[in-house]
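Why this split exists: single-chain examples teach little about how molecules sit against one another. For that reason, every record in the complexes split bundles all components of an assembly together and asks for one structure covering all of them. Below is a record exactly as it appears in the raw files.
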Amino acid sequence: MQKQQKRIIQVSICALVAVTILCIVYLTTSKSPESRTAVKTDSDKVSSAQTLPQAKAPKKAGAQGVSVKPVLKKAPAKKAALDETDWQTKVEAALNDPDVSVRMGAVRLLWNKMTPESVELLAMFLDDKETVVAEEAIDALGHIAQNSELGEEVFNILIAKATDKEFQSRGLALLTASMVGEPDQVLPVIGTILEEQNQSAREYAVRAISFVNGPEAVPYLTRILADGGSRAMQRNAYRLLAQTGTGEARQVLEADVYSQEHEKQVNTVWALSRISTDANTQMLSSALRGKTLGDESLSIIAGSRAAPAVFEEAFQSDNLTNTDKRNLLRTLSKNTRLAPGDVRNQTAEIIKPLLDSSDEQLQKDAIEALGNIGASDNQADALAEKLESDSPILQGAALYAYAKFTTPNTYKPLKTLWYDKDEKIRRTAFFLSSPFLNHSDLEDLEKAKKHSDELISKQSERIVKQLDLQDKITSQ
Amino acid sequence: MKHFKLIALLSAFVLISTVAWAGNVPEYDAVGQDDLNFFAASVIYYQLVTANNPTLEQLSSFVEEGFNTNAGQLRAGPCYGIPVALTDVWNQGTYEWDIVLQMKPESDINLNIYDCVLKHNELNLWRFADQTGRYRLDWGELVFNPAWNPLVSATVSPGPFATSSFILPFTLDARTLPGLANVALDEVSYTSKAHWPEGIVMAMPKTGESNESGQDEWNLKQGDIIHVTVEIPDMTNTVDVRYGPNSVVLKYIGIIGTEYFNQ
């Protein structure tokens, strides 16, 4: 009898669980596109007049000509629109709508409603079972707080959620609370969160400091650095110290940029090179001149906006030997290509003075670096003089660097090398210039037809014939 | 008893795992009506996305979207027959696309650039396909110069539902492949060839962190606007390059429930 009762209970529970699973699956599986369509109202219209100022990305100077604007296809009339006049009731009804799109639409409706009622309703959406709805509500609350007098109410709601360990989006709640609160309100909460063993919570705490960064934040940042953590977290903490610029922050940075601990050094260098103030650049320059930076640190600087200023000081320094400077040039050659376009051009400018160095090897490395860093400004003028160097080493390096800047506007200096005594030099120069030769070069080509180098004389003849043929075709 | 325990465990797992997330879907966005983009209409993996939510891909034209170029008039190109503007050898050209994200991303965003690269003055893809940054010398050697390639930049501007405090545009970072190191998408070189697409992986930014340019980053949301620029550098272009409004598509994983439609 007992066994039978046990069996009945087990079967009942299994049946109940199965029904529950089926209900959940039914509620959460994909619906038809129409019913998944977000509910939109007139107040959801994208209007730059009523929403955040949309700072559009700057257009490139001179980009004009053809513009294509899309043809707008309007949304069809909605079945269950949230009526503007009765929004509060409808939003309350949407709170428990099983369709996540409806609930999202309700949150969006509240986005620009700067009222205490709206804040109350959004607070209710924070408890939505879907993370995406809760996070949209957090963003909406942040928007209201920053555009109304309701900042304090919103802050209290969000900071409570940030400290609630059961809240699924406490990270975003903390970030948004930090945007709207004052440092003396936020930092103690961050301090509490930093006590937690939860690595994710600690990472959010660091990110939150970026919104309340200032002298008061420095002790928290130094604590974060002392406690360790992921590279991303450490770099973020160093970055915030580099932004702060206080004496205490600088002490930490100065100590760690000279650290022999690899991670400390590279993370500090990363932060200082990304927040390139004069003070931070000076710190990097000093460390570089002091020859304390490892290869990875140098690579990080070479690929950053700090590269031109830091490396320029290094090249002018008497503290570095020519061998040191050659190593720096090789670092630039390998890494500056990944830096933004204007940084590559600025770096080219700081390399050019080294083309006049009395040290031939240093000159050679400077020539090679000029060719390798990927400057978009043409460097042919700077290299042209080196094409006629008496040193075969420099001449060869200059020719191969010049190849990267040879265009219809810059090929002519190569013609002076057609008669170089070195076969490789003269043939390379000839072939680098050959795609650009035209009628203006006929005289030189006629002369080259009698060149003692058979390859050049034959190619010259061929090019002259091609140009003659072009003339005939044009005249017909 | 064993079966009972298994079912209880399974149901507990299901109960826990189904309450927190609405789900994620592949999504793509392009200039104008997304499902009319040439590649979206032609390529199976886009077609699957469209079939999953045709309304979203139809109601996808936004006033903020557009295409702009100084490279001359749009004409049917030799690669796909779609409208493209030509930048020919040794000339400069700039192409710009503004694309609105229709869903909140929960992944990196793939910037797909569909190329059309041919030798100078040639119109036959099946004989004269070429690669940017490369040319052949008279004695046959192929030369490749990274500095002769197009430069790509990408920034993002806030939309109507942007993350709080996201006001100013910032530069997106790319992940190098292979290696997955971060590089600022600020006039960096990439190479393109024939009619193939090139994929650049743009790292998902995070509120409270900074990008490789030292700028503050913000979580991306539906409605935010991605601005892509491709510049053919002056006097170093060795091939004929063509791009048009259809040439750029963004691909990512979006969060269900965050769909954003046009007016």
